[in-house]
Design a protein that fits this description.
Blueprint lengths: L4 H4 L6 H14 L5 E6 L3 H14 L5 E8 L11 H8 L15 E4 L2 H6 L3 E4 L6 H8 L8 E4 L4 E4 L2 E4 H9 L3 E5 L4 H5 L4 E6 L4 H11 L4 E6 L2 H23 L4 H22 L11 H12 L2 H11 L6 H9 L6 H15 L6 H10 L18 H5 L6
Parallel strand pairs: 1-2, 1-4, 2-3, 4-5, 5-8, 9-10
Antiparallel strand pairs: 6-7, 8-9
Helix pairs in contact: 6-7, 10-11, 10-12, 10-13, 10-15, 11-12, 13-14, 15-16
Bound molecules: nicotinamide-adenine-dinucleotide (NAD).
GO molecular function: glycerol-3-phosphate dehydrogenase (NAD+) activity; NAD binding
Enzyme class: oxidoreductase
InterPro entries: 6-PGluconate_DH-like_C_sf, 6PGD_dom2, G3P_DH_NAD-dep, G3P_DH_NAD-dep_C, G3P_DH_NAD-dep_euk, G3P_DH_NAD-dep_N, NAD(P)-bd_dom_sf
């Protein structure tokens, strides 16, 4: 059983913890306060819980305690990850050396973690979300609000499905998204960055999410464009793989800048072809151009793709992921495959030479050097950008 926040607070050690322990009884007596649960506890999940937990302590309309569902793992010393998080207040596997805040309670029981939550923050690698949603049907409050921090897309027979749509449809709740130039380890140590919340219709809900995440070092703004924001966050991982190939081939900054520009253009074209509601202005928010830049300079997708190119494509991404990421998951390779499926199915492969080439390199059909062979594959973007008929 995960200890409650009050149990963790029995022996306060610092002034801040003493104040928290005193505040807890009032907090529990307020049934109208919002309870927040974070579903996921990897690198970004842990940082998201930390950000939210420092705000719930300050915002009177939220319960102090933030539950964080942990996919239980046994550590090399035989201890359970969730127990170690609750004892040390650190996620020793995915975010070591950073205190999460005493009001974060790790809970390995998914049903219990979500049961009383009014606001659900989904932040797991995208490949696990379909299974998690199935487990959550009938287990959450009917009027709960959700937000997805997940980058990825599910490809189904009937077409591509955004993760926010999967959550909304399977659980029957509204779902916003939060994306941006957000390498988790940098936010964990409170370096300044920005993020974008995408919402569908209800601005009040979007403002509530902004309030929950916003910090002087994490500036959040909201735009009414769920699909645009989510596709930016998802597709930039494919561009980051291309940037990693360029680094592995030691092609320099001009080439990398060209890849970023071509990538951004394909991101916009793909998003607008799938959803005519997607706004151009979204690509100038943190979720767009800023996320492209940070992911192509740092980030795990770039790093593993660089190693892949340095080995001439002879070592698989699965092998490199296991060796270089210590349990963290790559998203770009699977997203490239999913995007490729959509392009192939719709007859759009020739319109998206960068996306197409990334998948063909990842799957071993082309060498890494193919990433810059563009002269023969100029996309006919006039078809996408100039003609409403094409949408
Ligand atoms: N890390 C970042 O810098 C960052 C930044 C922005 C967005 N994101 C996005 O956030 C999402 C989550 O990434 P992360 O960095 O928090 O995770 P991570 O890659 O650091 O960790 C993987 C997580 O998956 C869990 N897991 C493993 N097997 C599982 C299973 N079968 N079922 C459910 N969970 C399982 C692990 O316990 C761990 O919590 C991804 O979509 C990612 O693209 C990450």
């Amino acid at each position: 059983m995960a200890p409650s926040m009050e149990a963790q607070q029995q022996q306060p050690e610092t002034e801040g913890e003493t104040q928290l322990a005193q505040a807890a009884p009032d907090d529990n007596e307020a049934p109208n306060k919002c309870k927040v649960t974070v579903v996921g506890s990897g690198n970004w999940g842990s940082v998201a819980a930390k950000l939210i937990a420092s705000n719930t302590l300050k915002l009177p309309s939220f319960h102090d305690e933030v539950r964080m569902w942990v996919f239980e793992e046994t550590l090399p010393n035989g201890e359970k990850l969730s127990e170690v998080i609750n004892q040390t207040n650190e996620n020793v596997k995915y975010l070591s050396g950073v205190k999460l805040g005493k009001n974060v309670v790790a809970d390995p029981d998914l049903d219990r973690a979500v049961r009383d939550a009014n606001m659900l923050v989904f932040v797991t690698p995208h490949q696990f979300m379909e299974g998690i949603c199935k487990r959550l049907i009938g287990k959450i409050k009917k009027d709960a609000e959700a937000i997805s921090l997940i980058k990825g897309i599910e490809v189904k027979r009937e077409g591509p499905c955004m993760i926010s749509t999967l959550i909304s449809e399977q659980l029957g709740i509204n779902c916003c998204v939060l994306m941006g130039a957000n390498i988790a380890n940098e936010i964990a140590v409170e370096k300044f960055s920005e993020a974008t919340v995408g919402y569908r219709g209800n601005k009040e809900i979007a403002e509530r999410w902004v309030q929950l995440f916003n910090h002087p070092y994490f500036m959040v703004s909201a735009v009414q464009d769920v699909e645009g924001v989510e596709l930016c966050g998802t597709l930039k991982n494919v561009v980051a793989i291309a940037a990693g190939f360029v680094d592995g081939l030691e092609m320099g900054n001009n080439t990398k800048a060209a890849i970023m520009r071509i990538g951004l253009r394909e991101m916009r074209a793909f998003s607008k072809l799938l959803f005519s509601s997607v706004k151009d202005s979204t690509f100038f928010e943190s979720c767009g151009v800023a996320d492209i830049i940070t992911t192509c300079l740092g980030g795990r997708n770039r790093k593993c793709a660089e190693a892949f190119a340095r080995h001439g494509g002879k070592r698989s991404f699965d092998e490199l992921e296991a060796e270089m990421l210590q349990g963290q998951k790559l998203q770009g390779v699977s997203t490239a495959k999913e995007v490729y499926e959509v392009l192939r199915h719709r007859g759009w492969l020739e319109l998206f030479p960068l996306f197409t080439t990334v998948h063909e390199i990842c799957s071993g059909h082309l060498p890494p050097s193919a990433i810059v062979e563009y002269s023969e594959h100029k996309p006919k973007f006039s078809l996408v950008e100039g003609s409403a008929r094409f949408y």
